[in-house]
């Protein structure tokens, strides 16, 4: 599947990877509070939803011409 907005998809994946890396660092370093960890999880989850929506829109445009 070819995307019209490949840069946005790539940026979305980079943001997700960065968010997961931040979560990993928070766990490995310790000392992070639960609230900050949950906030970061929510940010990653929101980014996944944005990316999912973008992919669905792109797939719809490609199907419909």
Give me some keywords for this one.
65 residues; 2 helices; mainly alpha
**How many structural domains can be distinguished in the coordinates?**
1
Count the beta strands. 0
**pLDDT under 50 segments (min length 5)?**
none
Mean pLDDT: 88
How many whole angstroms does the radius of gyration measure? Answer: 15 Å
- Please work out how many helical segments DSSP would assign: 2
Characterise this structure.
There is one protein chain. This protein is an all-alpha fold and 65 residues long. The protein has one domain (12-64). The chain is built from two helices and no strands. It has helices spanning 6-29, 34-64. Helix 1 runs antiparallel to helix 2. The model has no long low-confidence stretch (mean pLDDT 88).
Précis, in short:
The protein has 65 residues and is mainly α. 85% of the residues lie in helices and 0% in strands. It has one domain (12-64).
SSE blueprint:
Layout: H1 6-29, H2 34-64
Helix pairs in contact: 1-2
């Amino acid at each position: 599947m070819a995307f019209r907005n490949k840069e946005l998809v790539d940026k979305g994946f980079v943001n997700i990877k960065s968010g997961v890396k931040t979560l990993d660092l928070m766990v490995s370093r310790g000392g992070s509070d639960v609230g900050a960890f949950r906030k970061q999880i929510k940010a990653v989850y929101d980014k996944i939803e944005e990316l999912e929506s973008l992919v669905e829109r792109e797939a719809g445009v490609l199907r419909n011409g």
